């Protein structure tokens, strides 16, 4: 199966949909927002974004796909999202560095009446280090619109801590690899502790990703982490389920 060829038809054939994964505050235990996660089902099978995003990134198809995601997520969540909740959307490196990204997003927010201060864009460390000067400028423009910025997969991308300070990001998302190792590896526990200290020092809030167990949860609480996302709270779910669900408190 050729992914690039398949992707050419994916939008027109309605093969994409979005799932939403709830995030909870560790202070209040309450739902604070959702991350939008792209899903592709084609020829009867499910293909993971891990397997197609990089293909779309290299072929350039990501610009069109990314635009579809933005439109879809902002329009379907606009009537649903409560005013104290946030919505996070992933941007690939190429999409993030796209020239017209800021005006495109600005126009979409206006047209769809989506409040900019409830939108968070997730950018990987790689997108930042691949062109640091441009990343600073792009983030600064997005923030002028009122949008928040999260650094995704934090801890995997070797971004320099000093340079992190220049970025004006709002949140760090600790990669699930480190969370998975909590209570298995002392080194990873120290690393998580260190990331939390660093974040506090820079006034960044922290979300731990891929939290699966109560043990991880209480460890993160003890370490002062702000929020979590993971199967222990909720799995990614289709919009119909977001509409119907009454969210449990952690
Ligand atoms: O939800 P899942 O584990 O399948 O996601 C796998 C990876 O795909 C994650 O790293 C996630 O950031 C990425 N991803 C999911 N949806 C999107 C999207 O809409 N755009 C981009 N660029 N990446 C996405
Ligand atoms: O964008 P990012 O790389 O952060 O994507 C998060 C990924 O983690 C998504 O693919 C999502 O489906 C996945 N995920 C969410 N919660 C859990 C969890 O508790 N455990 C594991 N293993 N994966 C998770
Ligand atoms: Mn993400
Ligand atoms: Na991540």
TrEMBL record:
Record domain EAL: where: 1-250
Taxonomy, superkingdom: Bacteria
Protein name according to UniProt: EAL domain-containing protein
Species the sequence originates in: Thalassotalea euphylliae
């Amino acid at each position: 199966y050729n992914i690039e060829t398949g992707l050419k038809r994916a939008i027109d054939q309605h093969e994409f949909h979005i799932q939403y994964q709830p995030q909870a505050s560790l202070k209040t235990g309450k739902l604070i927002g959702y991350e939008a996660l792209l899903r592709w089902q084609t020829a009867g099978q499910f293909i993971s974004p891990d397997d197609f995003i990089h293909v779309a990134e290299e072929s350039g198809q990501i610009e069109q796909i990314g635009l579809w995601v933005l439109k879809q997520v902002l329009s379907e969540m606009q009537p649903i999202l409560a005013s104290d909740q946030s919505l996070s959307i992933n941007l690939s490196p190429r999409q993030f560095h796209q020239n017209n990204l800021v005006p495109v997003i600005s126009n979409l927010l206006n047209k769809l009446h989506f409040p900019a201060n409830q939108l968070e864009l997730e950018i990987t460390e790689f997108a930042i280090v691949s062109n640091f000067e441009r990343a600073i400028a792009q983030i600064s423009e997005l923030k002028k619109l009122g949008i928040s910025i999260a650094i995704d997969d934090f801890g995997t991308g070797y971004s320099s801590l000093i340079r992190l300070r220049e970025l004006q990001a709002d949140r760090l998302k600790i990669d699930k690899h480190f969370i998975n190792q909590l209570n298995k590896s002392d080194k990873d526990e120290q690393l998580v502790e260190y990331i939390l200290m660093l974040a506090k020092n820079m006034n960044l809030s922290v979300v731990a990703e891929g939290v699966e167990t109560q043990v991880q949860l209480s460890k993160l609480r003890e370490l002062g982490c702000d929020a979590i996302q993971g199967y222990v709270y909720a799995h990614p779910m289709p919009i119909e389920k977001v509409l119907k669900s009454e969210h449990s408190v952690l």
